[in-house]
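Re-running Phosphate ABC transporter ATP-binding protein PstB to confirm reproducibility after the cluster update. Everything else is unchanged from the original entry.
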Amino acid sequence: MTITITDTNQSVSNPTEDQRVVDKEYILHVENLNIYYGENWAVHNVQMEIEKNAVTALIGPSGCGKSTFLRSINRMNDIIPNARAEGEILYDGINILRDDIDVVALRKEIGMVFQKPNPFPKSIYENLTHALKFAGIRNKGKLDQIVEESLRKAALWDEVKDRLHQSALALSGGQQQRLCIARTIALKPSVLLLDEPSSALDPISNAKIEELILQLKKDYSIIIVTHNMHQASRVSDKTAFFLNGDLVEYDRTSKIFTKPSEKKTEQYISGQFG
Ligand SMILES: Nc1ncnc2c1ncn2[C@@H]1O[C@H](COP(=O)(O)OP(=O)(O)OP(=O)(O)O)[C@@H](O)[C@H]1O
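Result of re-run:
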């Protein structure tokens, strides 16, 4: 899959410029990223590299800019009228903040799952095939194969294989969220952005989502926003602590939770504020 750039027909897999950094270890390089909502400076000059096939957790108190940062990675802030991002987010060597990026193609490569499960009011099967058909895949055998593969990867196949043509809305909240993950996976992304994916779920569904995240990192690079410190420490390899729009500290999760370098990080993870 490629991100076609409208003016030049340039693709992310074969970039001709901005090829400063394409390496094996990192999937994204964020440089001097600033995000504004009108006059409100929500994310301040963030510099960060996101590892491939790892889970990166974004933590911090409410309003610190975690979701704003996450949404900028697949240009979801574009739909907010007064939002503006400056700086660079390099994916495969291309700055995805450029005006000429095809954001629809980008969002297939960098998929997003939201806090509240949001399946379409259609069958389980159609939830998975809707975007695929839109992308031109019509062959029933191929669609069936992608549906099964995606549901298996999302650890949902065994629970739904006998009711693929029933409404997705009849699934439990936890199953709906795994369906949303399967729907994103069906488009064969490289990066999964998860915005508090299990905060609306019961503890058992939460545990299943966490188990799933650990399995998925073999195939995807995952960035997760979470308010749950235990969740961040259980599922992530690296953790970024945001405060008032600043990236205060970014390190191995084990270090952040045992021996953070910054006083503010220590105060936050020990529950002294936020
Ligand atoms: N759609 C929006 N329009 C205007 N300002 C916004 C919008 N979304 C967020 N903001 C502002 O941007 C700043 C960062 O908000 P953001 O939602 O990114 O924080 P957060 O850390 O994800 O918070 P939470 O944990 O509560 O979801 C806040 O000042 C917030 O008011």
